[in-house]
């Protein structure tokens, strides 16, 4: 048995796999809403955030020790990548718990998402999008090969902290989120090609799918059309009515679902996309493929 721990800006997740004759099956997974980006000031993760990270990792470590799992692969994305004291935190985790965190770059985060998603969704050309708590990864691929992998500083939790004063954004705050997301997308790709279909990975997009299925009663559907997304965005403009729908479908995402959805809306509008296919496999599965199955060397940057 092996474990992969994904330390994100909003959530920390652990997948435990069983190796059955070279085939890895997910035995179980665990998730903690850590909200690390909420503990960042002046690009430094505060002690409160470090203690939250240590608390979650200690819980996971206790589970692993009880199951006698010694092969553990923790990796961090924008949660630690975009702060000044990342090396200090990685060292503290290693000394306190014995876990050595692999800090992955923004480009590699996108590549991991693509590797995981393409293992279950077969599409030759397109765009993969992963909206995280602190960043969003955009991977353009052609003929089953990555053409570009870009990490943008637009995340569901970071945008919530910057723009939203209450639980849900006001109409003016929605406009501010859209304006900033559009500007960053334009700076990154000022002449975007039309991309008919996007593959979406990550917790924000999976949560949006749950919300969409709850609103439109599509219980087995894994596709979000641009028309459906536009409908959801319009509903968000009356937050006192929309809050009940969020609490019914995805209560643990009440703060971040609107910023995350608005980011996705800006991306689909930017690339004139008609639909998004949601993949249940993403960065953790990509990490399993690259670093466990294919035995790619891990660079800890030390």
How would you sum up this structure, described in words?
This protein folds into two domains: 2-103, ATPase, nucleotide binding domain (Nucleotidyltransferase, domain 5, 2-Layer Sandwich), CATH 3.30.420.40; 113-278, Nucleotidyltransferase, domain 5 (2-Layer Sandwich). The two termini are 27 Å apart. Strand 1 and strand 2 form a beta hairpin. Helix 7 (203-216) packs across helix 9 and helix 7 packs across helix 10 (257-270). The chain is α/β, with parallel strands linked by helices and 302 residues long. It has eleven helices and 13 strands.
Task: Describe the secondary structure blueprint for this structure.
Layout lengths: L1 E6 L3 E10 L2 E11 L6 E2 L2 E2 L1 H20 L4 E6 L1 H4 L4 H11 L5 E2 L2 H13 L7 E6 L4 E7 L2 E8 L3 H8 L7 H18 L8 E5 L1 H14 L6 E3 H10 L3 H11 L7 H14 L4 E4 L4 H11 L9
Parallel strand pairs: 1-6, 6-7, 8-11, 11-13
Antiparallel strand pairs: 1-2, 2-3, 4-5, 8-9, 9-10, 12-13
């Amino acid at each position: 048995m092996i474990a992969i721990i994904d330390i994100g800006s909003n959530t920390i997740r652990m997948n435990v796999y069983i190796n059955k004759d070279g085939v890895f099956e997910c035995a179980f997974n665990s998730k903690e809403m850590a909200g690390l980006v909420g503990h960042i000031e002046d690009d430094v993760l505060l002690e409160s955030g470090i203690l939250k990270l240590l608390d979650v990792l200690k819980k996971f470590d206790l589970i692993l020790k009880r199951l006698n799992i010694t092969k553990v692969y923790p990796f961090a994305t924008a949660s630690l990548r975009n702060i000044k004291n990342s090396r200090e935190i990685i060292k503290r985790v290693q000394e306190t718990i014995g876990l050595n965190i692999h800090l992955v770059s923004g480009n590699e985060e996108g590549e991991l998402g693509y590797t995981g998603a393409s293992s279950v969704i077969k599409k030759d050309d397109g765009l993969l999008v992963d909206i995280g708590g602190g960043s969003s990864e955009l991977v353009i691929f052609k003929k089953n090969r990555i053409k570009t992998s870009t990490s943008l500083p637009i995340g569901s939790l970071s945008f919530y902290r910057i723009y939203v004063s209450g639980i849900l954004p006001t109409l003016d705050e929605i406009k501010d989120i859209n304006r900033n997301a559009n500007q960053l997308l334009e700076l990154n790709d000022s002449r975007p090609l039309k991309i008919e279909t996007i593959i979406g990975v990550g917790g924000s997009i999976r949560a949006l799918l749950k919300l969409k299925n709850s609103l439109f009663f599509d219980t087995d559907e894994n596709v979000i059309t641009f028309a459906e997304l536009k409908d959801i965005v319009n509903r968000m403009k009356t937050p006192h009515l929309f809050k009940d729908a969020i609490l019914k479908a995805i209560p643990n995402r009440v703060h971040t679902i609107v910023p995350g959805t608005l980011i996705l809306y800006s991306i689909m509008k930017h690339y004139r996309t008609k639909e998004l296919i949601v993949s249940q496999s993403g960065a953790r599965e990509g990490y399993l493929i690259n670093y466990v199955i294919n035995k790619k060397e891990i660079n800890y940057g030390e």
